[in-house]
Design a protein that fits this description.
The chain is of the alpha+beta class. It has 3 helices and 6 strands, in the order ββαααββββ. It has one domain. The protein has a 4-stranded antiparallel sheet. The chain has a two-stranded antiparallel sheet with strand order 1-2. Strand 5 and strand 6 form a beta hairpin.
């Protein structure tokens, strides 16, 4: 079955990424651990898939397009460029989500794909 692509406002994200973000990946021990860690940390930030969490991530992905770039995380390959941007998140606790956007063929004018996220919880 093909992995469908969701069109956001200024970005795209593969449907399967939400499985990874919300703890449903069990392909191997490393990916399973990382997926469950995403779930726990997103929940700590108040982002719960059962309570509008997917829509909240879509909003954060849109907001991230204009968020500060973490320049040391920029990656250029023969296939494209990945740029990581930091979006601050506050709720019961505060933190940030580092969102990696992928630009195929290094075309920074193209609509990027959300490639990954990393949640940071502030103490």
């Amino acid at each position: 079955m093909a992995d469908s692509v969701i069109q956001g406002e200024g970005f795209t994200v593969r449907e399967s990424k939400f499985d990874f973000f919300f703890g449903r990946v069990a392909s191997d021990p490393t990916n399973t651990q990382r997926s469950l860690q995403n779930l726990r940390e997103l929940m700590r930030l108040g982002i719960d898939e059962a309570a509008g969490g997917r829509q909240r991530l879509m909003e954060l992905f849109k907001e991230g397009l204009n968020a500060p770039e973490i320049s040391e995380d920029r990656r250029d390959t023969e296939y494209g460029t990945s740029i990581t941007r930091k979006v601050e998140v506050s709720g019961a606790i505060t933190g940030a989500i580092l969102i990696r956007y992928y630009y195929p063929e290094s075309d920074l004018e193209a609509i990027p794909q959300v490639a990954s996220l990393v949640v940071k919880i502030y103490q």
